[in-house]
Amino acid sequence: MVQRHRARRLHYDFRLEIDGVLVSWAVPKGPTLDPGVRRAAFHVEDHPLDYFDFEGVIPSDQYGGGDVIVWDAGTWAPPADKATDPGRAVADGELHLDIHGEKLRGRFVLVRTRTDASGKEEWLLLHKRDEDAVAGWDAEDHPRSVLSGRTNDEVKADPDRLWRSDEPASRASVPLKFAPAAAGELDALDALGAGGTWSIFGRDLAVTNLDKVLFDAREGEPPVTKRDLLRYAVQVAPTVLPYLAGRPMNLHRYPNGTRSRGFWQKALPDHAPDWVPRWENPDAGDGETRTYLVVGEPAALVWATNFGGIEWHAWTSRAEDPRHPTYALIDLDPGDTTGWPDLLDLARLHRAAFEHLGVRAVPKVTGRRGIQIWVPVAPGPTFDETRAWVENLSTAVGAVLPDLVSWKWKRSDRSGRARLDYTQNALNKTLVAPYSPRPAAGAPVSAPIDWAELDDPELRPDGFTIRTLPDRLAARGDLFADVLGSDQALPPLV
Ligand code: MN
After folding, report:
1. What strand order describes the sheet that includes 327-333?
2. 68 CA to middle of ligand 1, Å?
3. Domains in the chain: how many in total?
4. Which of 11, 199, 408, 446 is most buried, judged by most C-beta within 10 A?
C-alpha cells in the first residue's frame, strides 16, 4: 500500500508487507509508471500492519504530524524469475516486484544506491518497460484516496481517524466520528449504574457518580446529572476536537455540581491516565503550571468532563507556538441594565463592520447572557497586536451606540452598561470554547450561530442546552468551522 502523507514535507510512503510488517520507503515525488523516470526512495523504519489502512490525521506535535490518505492498495509478489526471499532481497539491496494495485501495476524494482554514515539508506524506485508502463505518468495527477475517494485536503478538513504516533500501534488509532453505530456506547453508559468502566473512543474510562445532579433543573425539565453531561460530551467531542487539539486547556471545574463555586484547574493531575495527551510548558516559571491537558483525541475531553471539567477553555494560541494567537476574540459582555435587544444591536454593528472590512468572523452565544465573536487569524501577530486590533475595532463600533457601552474596567463603574472586552486577547487567557457547557440551570451551552440568527426573534443567549444542542448540530452542522485552518490576516483599521 502507498500513503500520500503531508508531513513537514509531502511524500508518499511505499509499504510492502514482508514477514509480518510493513517494510517502508518514503518516496518524495511518489511512485510512477513512467519507465523513463527513477524516483529517490528513502528506506524508513518498518511500520506495524495495523497501519495498512490508516487514513486521517496525526497530531502536529507527534512523529509524522500531518494528514494521510491511502493513495493506493493491492497485492504484490516477487516475479517468478526473481523469486528470492523478499526479506533477504531487501537486506541485499535489490528487490523486484510485480504489483497489482488500483493505480500502480506492473513490474517495479527497488535498488539501494547508498548508505550514509548514519545508516540512512537511499534507494531508487523504478518501473520496468512492460505493458503497464505509461510514459509521463505522475502520481500527483491521481490525488484521491482509493479507500474513500477523498483528497488530503478533504481528509484533513473532516478526518475519520487520528493516529497517535506516541502510542503502541495497537492503541494508536483513534476513531474521531461518533457514528450512530456507536450509539451502543451510550446504551453502555446507561447500563453502568452509579459508575464503572466505560469504553469510549478506544479508551477505557473509570466513570463515577453518574447519577449525581450537577445542574439544577430548568422549569419543566429534570435536573442534569453527570451521566447526562458525559453523554453530551461524547456526542459533541468529535466536533469540538478541532477547536481544542494542540492547545493547552484551562478547565473550569465544578466537581460538586454547579451550585457550588467552581475553580480553575490548569495543571494536569498526577492521577491522569498515561494516554491522556499533555504539554509541558517550557516557559513556566516557579509556581506556574507546567503540565497542561491537551485534548488531542475525543476520549480526552470525556475524561476531562468526568473529572469535573464542566467548562472547557482552550488557549487562543497553540502549544507549538504559544505567543502567537490564531484567533482574535471579541466578548460582548452585557451590564446589569443591558437588555438582550441592546446586545443584539452591538453584535449587528460588529457584523456590519466585518462585512465592510471583508473579515471572516463567527459568532456564538455564550450560554449565559453574552455573545462572542471569534476572528480567525493566521499565526503572525502577537497578543499585543490582536488585542490592540480588537480594541480599535470595538472602540469604533461602540462609538455608534455610546449610551450602551462603558469602557470602565470595574463592573460597578459601568452604570449597568455593556463592555466590549478585548482584554482576553492575551497569553493563557481564554474564553469558553464553542459547544462548552456553562454552569447554570439546565446546562446551557455556548452555541455557535450563523450571523442571520441575530435577527431571529427566538434567539436567546442561553437558549441551547446539552439536551438540545446535539439535534441542532445534526441539523445545522458545525457553524463554527470557519474559524479553523485560516490564512486570514487582520486588515489595518485606519
Ligand atoms: Mn510518512
Report:
1. 362-365, 371-376, 327-333, 419-421
2. 8
3. 2
4. 446
